[in-house]
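so my prof wants the structure for this chain in the tokens format not the other one, which i didnt know existed until like an hour ago. anyway here's the sequence
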Amino acid sequence: MVGRPRSETARKAILKAALDLCERDGYQNVTLKGIADAAGVGRQTLYRWWQTKAQVMMEAAVELLGPELRSPPVSGDPRADLVAFLRETFALAHGVAGRVVAGLMAEAQADPVFAAEFREHLIGPRRQALRAVLVRGALPEDVDVELAVDLIFGAMWYRLLNRHAEVDKKLAEEIAALVARIR
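here's what i got, hopefully its the right format
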């Protein structure tokens, strides 16, 4: 079935409205009705293109994060690249991108189909970028790269979800120093 083509203007307005509402009200308080109202479109427009708030928010996050998801730094200094990557990643965690991704992580816990999409479009590319940084010399060859990725992102997520400590430049330095000691 062929539907109406998407209006790029309406799509951008919807994604911007979704991010603005998330920043103002928090992920949990965003609704499709609220997004439609803020974007100046009918709810039927949203439902024609997306079936859930999570799908709208994920598209908005992918558009917001864009190349940052897949572009690890390359300076020739593995430790500096790791610190730069982690600083960039942790900076994204503060602000609307972090709110959206944390909300999407919660959604993924209850919906296995969405969880697979979330891993493919947001989590997977960032894991791949970290993997690329680590295999360029930040880790010895005999260290399991997947485990290192899990440990690094695990520290970030644990802090983000529990809010017991900062996810900041200091954490980026501490993780890079810890990785350097693995040698």
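also thought this was worth mentioning. The radius of gyration is 18 Å.
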